[in-house]
Write a structure and sequence with these properties.
372 residues, alpha+beta, seven-stranded antiparallel sheet, two-stranded antiparallel ribbon, 11 helices, 11 strands, 40% helix, membrane, transmembrane, transmembrane helix
Length: 372
């Protein structure tokens, strides 16, 4: 069953076939499919039981040990206060058992391959490809360029004039106590031409004054746009490219972004358009896929005209004559000048000044000690 086309008021929207995400799974087909899954997705039972199973056994041993010590107070207390105190002492160990059990069950469920099998069949039914895991995706977006280890999971992709990939991105940065794990859902749309670096920071997903995006850019690069757009997004572009951003974000394009992705962050970099979410976007939820298909169709229809944009810094548009004497319009070549390819990041002056003050105080103390 192929994707079903539904006519909207303004354009033809393609509704995906989501049957594979909900219908019963054939056990034989599932068994054959999961035998091909990589070890990073379906580890051996020994690999699953070694960390989580040991934790559960240790938790049960500790619980049994303390329960034996508190036996009378637990089973036949002479004072209700003693019973409360005894059970209160056991709470951490009961919690330890509960957490260990949840981790073990979750690990066992993940290795069944059901999620991957459903997404594989969903992608096939809609003329797309599926990869359960993709180490280090080579993409220019900000979530892919930080140092550390990274993987994309549940990558659903399609080709065509505007190739699209939808996936969940996991990365780890830092070491030791500074080690951090980051999870994102993303949509990557290949554009017909390279464009200036532009970021739309969605105001709807920022909380307590903290931005959702992993990188902050210099405030001098922010651009205010007309209408209601600034209520939903904060647009940043390289200095000197303000008129180019206005050319790209015409009123109908701004309306399309507000109507479809007001809760997602957007980045345009090189020849890609990215949508970012802190939640998984490649999921087993049919409604999410229906929404994503409509978003991609709406945006690609609006931004198709962006391929006509040219960076005047690479040359001017002028009229020349052909060999036959006919006038010919010469335009700059496709591409972006160096200053427009990446925005400047925000400098955290607080930490720089603070570090400098600490250094100067240390030097002053050393000089004072040497003099005295």
């Amino acid at each position: 069953m192929k994707a079903v086309a539904e006519r909207g008021t303004a354009s033809t929207a393609v509704r995906p076939d989501t049957t594979a995400l909900e219908q019963p799974i054939d056990r034989a087909s599932l068994t054959a499919y999961r035998s091909r899954l990589p070890a990073s997705i379906r580890p051996s039972l020994a690999a699953v039981f070694w960390p989580t199973g040991v934790l559960l056994v240790a938790a049960l041993v500790l619980l049994a040990f303390w329960a034996s010590l508190l036996g009378d107070d637990l089973l036949s207390p002479s004072d209700p206060g003693e019973a409360f105190a005894a059970w209160f002492l056991l709470l951490p160990y009961l919690g330890f058992v509960g957490v260990s059990t949840v981790l073990l069950v979750r690990s066992l469920v993940r290795r069944t391959g059901r999620r991957q099998y459903r997404l594989h069949r969903f992608a096939a039914a809609n003329g797309m490809t599926y990869a359960p895991v993709q180490p280090g995706p080579q993409l220019p977006g900000m979530i892919f360029t930080r140092s550390g280890t990274e993987r994309a999971y549940d990558v659903v992709a399609r080709g065509g004039r505007h190739p699209v990939s939808i996936a969940n991105h996991h990365s780890t940065t830092g070491e030791g106590k500074g080690r951090e794990r980051h999870r994102w859902g993303y949509v990557a749309v290949r554009l017909p031409a390279s464009l200036p670096h532009i970021v739309l920071d969605a105001k709807g997903n920022n909380a307590l004054g903290r931005r959702n995006l992993p990188i902050e850019f210099a405030r001098s690069q922010r651009l205010r746009l007309e209408g209601d757009f600034d209520r939903y997004f904060e647009l940043s572009c390289p200095e000197g490219y303000e008129s180019d951003a206005l050319y790209l974000f015409t009123p109908d394009v701004m309306a399309a972004f507000i109507d479809t992705v007001a809760e997602l962050d957007v980045e345009i970099v090189d020849d890609h358009l990215f949508l970012y979410s802190r939640k998984d976007l490649s999921t087993l939820d049919p409604a999410t896929w229906v929404w994503l298909f409509s978003v991609v169709d709406a945006l690609t229809e609006r931004v198709s005209r962006w391929e006509r944009w040219r960076d005047e810094r690479l040359g001017s548009t002028h009229v020349t004559s052909s060999a036959e004497g006919a006038p010919v319009i010469r335009r700059p070549p496709p591409g972006v000048a160096k200053q427009g390819r990446r925005m400047r990041r925000r400098v955290e002056w607080f930490w720089i000044v603070g570090g400098l003050l600490v250094f100067l105080i240390g030097v002053y103390s050393m000089i004072e000690d040497a003099v005295t």
